[in-house]
Amino acid sequence: MTDIGGFADHGFGKVADAFAQNFGLHGEVGGAFALYVGGRPVVDLWGGSADATSGRPWSQGTLQLVFSTTKGATAVCANRLVEEGRLDLDAPVAQYWPEFAAAGKQDVPVRYVLTHQVGLPFCEDTLTVADVLAQRPVLQALENQAPLWEPGSAHGYHALTYGWLVGELVQRIDGRPLGRYFAEEVAGPLGLDFWIGLPPEEEPRVSTLIPSTPPTDPALLELMLTVMGPGTMGYRALTVNNAIPWMSADYMPWNTPEFHAAEIPAANGITDARSLARMYAACVTPVDGVRLLSDSQIAAAATLQTQGIDQCLQAETRFGLGFMVDGPFVGMLSPRSFGHPGAGGSLGFADPDTGVGFGYVMNQMQSNLAGDPRVLNLIEAVKTSL
User: Which residues are catalytic?
Assistant: First the structure.
């Protein structure tokens, strides 16, 4: 039996049961889950091992890198600027970032950046890990590059470039790097343990990611290689055109302090489940007096902007303004839910209809392209408990 810490309020026992079941039924090693309803926490659970090698237990203070679940935090920052009238979705990106106009991009609107329609899912330039961690070489490559498709004609998952593109817009408008803007405008007021660029003193709290193993089913393996195999658009997007070596049991760059401390606003957010749930809750209802986005901005952010077969993921994805919305790739609570999953299984989202803020983090990555069984189990338990 796995030791589980935390609490589940009366009426949410099924959620606690589902969290515990994930360890026995779905290969969970270490993780945490939190749920807010109506602006207050009703579930906050953690358990298992934060480091499978040392046996360090997952504690109340354990942090986890959440890959693309970070994109939700980045989207919150952009939507705040839209709500304040400082970022115009239909203005050219080049209005805020003049260098972006190169290679025929002078008329590309901001909206296409937030909806993965801009056509820059990876850099065609040859970059190194050092370039990625420095960020500026990546931005220069994106400035100079022509889109891979006509902007607005299709969408494709900008797995890493999304964060740098949105982050540069935030910095050009506000003057603060996105990580600092998020720390001061979002995480600080809400008291979140959530960083995009981890301070070194927090490093000992971070759990160790365990990479997923390839599927044993030949059909699933073939599908994965078709979508994410070397040379595919999906692989190039996930590795910045092979600048970041693919994750394996022998080499996991995302477990290193260098990757934790860098600013990669699409993929290296480090947080815990309660902070993730609290952030999303504050998007749809006041949390201790803090509201991140207005009802009208949430309505706009969660409105479907583009859907269909994703040029990078080769599956149907649906995007609002920086957030994924409920659909076949990531199911949430209702058609009005919005949020973002992360590679391996993490997920954060909000649901305006129920006032829910949902946060799940874990260290054992799974290779499901969609429909992680641990997440599905938790969502079903939440649905039956509300």
Answer: 68
